[in-house]
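User: Please predict the structure of the protein below. I'd like the answer in structure-token form so I can feed it into my own downstream comparison script.

Assistant: Understood. Taking the following sequence of 229 residues as input:
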Amino acid sequence: MAFRADVQAVMGRDRAIEYLVTRNIPHENRPRSQRVLEKLIQKYGPVVDSYPSWHPLMTANKDPREWGRDSHTTPSHQAGYEGLDHPIYLRNAIITCPYGGQETVLKSVADLKGHPDAEITAEPLDALLYMPDAHPVVIKCEWHRDLEHDGTIPMRIASGLLLEEMAPCWRWAQVAESWENMRHYILGSPRGSKSSLFVNQETGNALKSLYTAMINSGIHGPIYADRFK
């Protein structure tokens, strides 16, 4: 089935509402909880399953000299985040609902090393989400450059970030992974063959061409599939 960004966005929104605006929240609070959630999705969304490994939310705790090592596609303590619980991921934000208080999450975001192309901040949410005794926090990625009109990340930015994340691997890589094996890291999820909720088809084509040129140059070693030929 062909990838449909609009369909995936609607499915993700409905899934987030079902997950965070639960029946455990008092009936009179649910309309406001849903409005707060939908505003976040409208501004920072859509809902996603995982991030490109080059996204600032995944690399904000890396020293630039470490780009290319320990790549991550979902937020965790390995990417610098502490205290995340019951998270929902948006294209440019993370909503988390810890029970034990917000301080651990807020401090971990404040302690991130930072990113040259975006500001990563966190703030408490004044709404009931997930459970009445949870303490919701939103972690926001505010880009320093303009995004595309549809909210996707422009070709110039995505290409530069991909190069910063992937090119340094030449120093230690023994084999190069094929585009098919790396789409998860390069496009995020959900995704199609060359586009996702992070990048449109034109940008996805450019990323594929850029990555293919890198691995065909041999800087990462022989392509994995070619080792057995």
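That's the full token string. Residues 191 and 205 are 13 Å apart (CA to CA).
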